[in-house]
Specification:
Layout lengths: L8 H4 L1 H19 L3 H17 L5 H7 L3 H20 L17 E6 L4 E2 L3 E13 L2 E4 L3 E7 L10 E5 L4 E2 L11 H7 L2 E7 L4 E7 L3 H20 L4 H12 L7 H9 L10 H15 L3 H4 L2 H18 L4 H19 L5 H15 L7 H21 L7 H28 L2 E2 L2 H24 L4 H27 L4 E2 L6 H20 L2 H25 L3 E5 L7 E6 L2 E6 L2 H4 L1 H14 L3 E2 L6 E5 L2 E4 L2 E6 L16 E4 L7 H8 L3 E4 L5 H13 L4 E3 H4 L2 E4 L1
Parallel strand pairs: 5-8, 14-15, 18-19, 19-20, 20-21
Antiparallel strand pairs: 1-3, 1-6, 2-3, 3-4, 3-5, 6-9, 7-8, 10-11, 12-13, 12-22, 13-14, 16-17, 17-18
Amino acid sequence: MKAPVHVPEWKASPFVRLLLPFVAGIMLQWYLRFQLSFLIISIFSFTIAFVSIPFLPFHIKYIFRKYQGLLLNLMITGVAMLLTLLQSARDKPGWYGNYIRNNSQLIIRVDEPPLEKPNSYKAEAKVLFVQDGDSTIPVNGRIILYFAKTAYPSLAYGNRLWVNASIQAIKNSGNPGAFNYERYAAFQGLYHTAYLRAGDYKVLEGEDKNRFYAFIYQSRMAVLNTLKTYISGNKNVEGIAEALLIGYKEDLDKDLVQAYSNTGVVHIIAISGLHLGLIYAVLFWIFTRVPWVKRQKIFNLVIILSFLWLFSFVTGASASVIRSAVMFTCILTGKTFFKQASTYNSLSASAFLMLSYNPYYLWDVGFQLSYLAVFGIVWLQQPIYRLFYISFWPFRQIWSLMSVTLAAQVFAFPVCLYYFHQFPNTFLFTNLFAVPLSTLILFGEIALLAFSWWAGLAKLLGVVISWLIDVMNKVIQTFNDLPYSLLDQVYANVFTTWLLYSFILGCCAWLLYKNKKWLYLGLTAFAGFVMVQSMAHYTLLHQQKIIVYNASKYAAVDIIENNNYYFIGDSILLQDALPRNFYLKPARVSLQVKPAEKLTHLQTLAPHILKFKEKSIFIINTPIDSALSVNTTKADILIISKNAKVDIKHLNLLYRPTIVVFDASNSMWKIEQWKTLCESLNLRCHSVPEQGAFVQDL
């Protein structure tokens, strides 16, 4: 009997080979911005060359056949670049941004049920027409709308509105290390926002609904109403129940979410592959015990996938759950129809499909974490599990769960360090507790939906679920309060992240395949990682700069010396963690600085005058006496704050500033007046709300 032929994983996974040039094409197009005509000509040329090779004379075909693979990869790269270009909303013909003028009006359709915010209602909308004078131009594109709560009519998905208000381009804050919201919104096809007060819009007659999306929103609302009816307790309990089942996060407490993040279990409240995996496991267990069903593989597949997709749609069809559903569809289809189907191939196929639909998913944090974690589980879970044999069944199951957690974390944590700059030291123990408990809660909520018509049973299920969620919250908060439970403010950039992945890949491959080349790769990457980290820390330890933050309605300045910062600004930013973490923390983490009561080279010459080495910094937030004479100290940086009643001409004569900075605590109309005066005086100025944070080396 012949030994079975071993097919290398690389050859058994054709979609892996297709995915690599596809990803390369997406990145090339995003960073280099090739024109449509160039891409079409390139794809056509590569296709003609690829198709022509088999028809060449034999001796010529023999020479060029080795280039067929290269041509195929170039074709795939070109197609990926074309799809990336076509996905960009503002590059499409008829994009509304190309037609808007100062006096234009919009006719839009509300594309989702508006969500209530503290001071407004928020909804995404599709722009249908631009009205400019007597002309009405059909357009496309989407916009974010904020409705003032005063005189707000009850709007719903499908309502059509006439809007007459100025729209604002979505911009980043410019704060160092801040989340790139402008790029994130662009990947969603969103480039503008509008704040609408009463009189800025009116509701038009008729509705414009898609039945499928209407079903999704109605299902989501029905699920929310059921949960709110029967899940009793405090807001933390209700928020977790809604997030865990359908990914609805509007009722979540920010501090509780931070506790889940700090302990490494935030994935259980972001509906994703974990939830669908649990549902699949239960369905698979049931069907394998039904004699007739377990022999009908195709029927089995259809029923399981139907349940998974039904759950995905009923719970709102969020991007994360659809991504997981596609992943499971590819993996289960491969296993059903191809006995030797490679899980890596099925995984790559699902990623290929998702990126073909929307190439910008490549930059989505959830997309990256999902596929990295699943890859880690597929590759490393069994080797980790086989490290120890445990005969006692309960302990064996615990070790199995721990091996899954470890395998997923190995490939997910470098990305987590890059985006969040923290590592949860207690993740192994919190997942050991939270994953089984969240499984009970998830199936309890599904049972609650199934039996919501039976009020008595639904109330009982609601009480049990509320108690389980409360227990889980308390345990998570207990772990979060433990000393050293979190490694925070970890420095990471793109380069160190790639080096860290190279180190992990090399070491894991060496341990699994016993090939020293992988070890050399891992050690080389680790040496590079240490060198880059050392250089970065050396640079950060010798930094001296000032940051005037773009913190809406707040005054906030950091003066940084080495790895310390001295804060000047509104006291609420010291007391309230939410605005502090949003506006200030990303910069302090990226610059690796800690608070200090004083800095070595910083002197206070007067209540509003600071001196750092040879640089003078003036902070004006109160009126200046017009009778004052010229100051002996020239202002290198003059910061105007809190709508101070000042005369720019007088300040210029008094302090002779090199640059004037208007911070985010000032009103925009006031800043516009000051800017006009600065221009007339040929005085450099910087508007923080418009231009982003002011950052300058000292």
